[in-house]
Amino acid sequence: MANIQETTQQKIISLCKRRGFVFPGSEIYGGLANTYDMGPLGVLMLRNIISNWWDFFVTKRENMFGLDTSILMAPKVWEASGHTQSFTNDMIDCKACRYRTRADHVLEDYFEELGESEKVEGRPLAELDELLKKYLVKCPKCGKSDWTNARKFNQLFETSVGIITESTSAAYLRGEIAQGMFVNFRNVVETMRPKLPFGIAQSGKAFRNEITLGNFIFRNLEFNLAEFEYFINPKVTDWKTAFEYWRGEMQSWIQALDVKEERLRWRPHTDEERAHYSTHTEDLDYNFAFGYKEMFGLAYRTDFDLRNHMEKSGVDLRFTDPATNDKFIPHVVEPTFGINRVLLCLLTEGYSEETDGRVVLRLSKKIAPFRAAVFPLVSNKPELVAKAREVHKNMVAAGISTAWDDRGNIGKRYLSQDEIGTPSCITIDYQTLEDGTVTIRDRDTKEQVRVLIKDLVGGI
């Protein structure tokens, strides 16, 4: 089974490169490990995912407010949030080949090979050293069992701000997108005058100097997140009630994108692995080709962030209850979505090799790069090409992402669109010129029906 899964993963990676979903970063210079660029189809799909997420969690909820905060923030933000002290991984080196990795990942991979699910993230360094020695865990690169002692490694990328070396000051690329929302809490309250409970949402890039990288776009140095902070009055709203509500909404969203429930599981964090700001965290894992791994996180952050920022900045971040005039620091339930991981999940879920030899990406039309493709039956008949161009133009004008293809024969065009997940292919043929109908071919069933051109937009 493992070999079959690994083969599937390699096929997905090959498809992504060959068809323009994902390219290796800095490729013409030999690449930079675990950086990737979204290609023309990848960026369309990524934007569709983010847009669908925003519509589901923000636009359709009157108590959710969006932000787009800066990637660079004052260093004191990260000191107050605890990231400069606690945003760390446990690093080890193989003494034989100098391969550097995370101690918890090496151990968890070892236990997984034994058929066990053992989480060791967050355990004391001495315990990690003991486990590595006890089980003679081998280096995945050279096969030796000779490791350095585990040590802490901060994941924040440090940079400097200023044009003169002597006057530059340290800054960090954000390791999470939450802090921009916390430091703008008062701004949102003063400008939008919300009632509790309410949320502040954003999507954007985060950066982590990861030790162990790999599995394609699953774990990279730079990645897309979407999340929101949901603020509650702990005396009025039970955090467990809010937690369970968003737990259900998170799963509903991903299943609405055609991800099967049986490939999802919720897993509570152990005390050792739980982040410093959380008192309860659960991950929604997806069964990727390389096993169950985290795709979403849901954390109860209490008042940790607002309280720390209030203490460190000296700015009052309490919320005033308009009914009682009581002032208090709201508590927070935080859903976080790894958008790159959602993209990989949907590619994995949709990838299919049919018995007729077709490769099909069964993507939801909500997030497929193109919802439709338009073809002239043949490309050497000007009247067919002109009519097809007209149909394509009208589809695009109606806001439907539509591909154009007049290369090769019609069968090859169908196969090409199947491979990139286009749900519907529209063919303009000689009958179109006579009665104004076109052929719509369904990606999944290959069934074809004729419809009037004027009915196309409503039927796609």
TrEMBL record:
Species of origin: candidate division WWE3 bacterium GW2011_GWB1_44_4
Q: Which PANTHER family match?
A: DNA POLYMERASE SUBUNIT GAMMA-2, MITOCHONDRIAL (PTHR10745:SF8), GLYCYL-TRNA SYNTHETASE/DNA POLYMERASE SUBUNIT GAMMA-2 (PTHR10745)
A GO cellular component annotated for this chain's UniProt record is:
cytoplasm
Q: Which residues cross the membrane?
A: none
Q: Which UniProt keywords apply?
A: Aminoacyl-tRNA synthetase, Ligase
Protein name, UniProt field: glycine--tRNA ligase
Gene3D superfamilies, alphabetized: Anticodon-binding domain (3.40.50.800), Bira Bifunctional Protein, Domain 2 (3.30.930.10)
Q: Which SUPFAM superfamilies match?
A: Class II aaRS ABD-related (SSF52954), Class II aaRS and biotin synthetases (SSF55681)
Q: What is its EC number?
A: 6.1.1.14
Q: Which NCBIfam families match?
A: glyS_dimeric, PRK04173.1
BP-aspect Gene Ontology terms: glycyl-tRNA aminoacylation
User: Which GO molecular function entries does the Swiss-Prot or TrEMBL record give?
Assistant: ATP binding; glycine-tRNA ligase activity
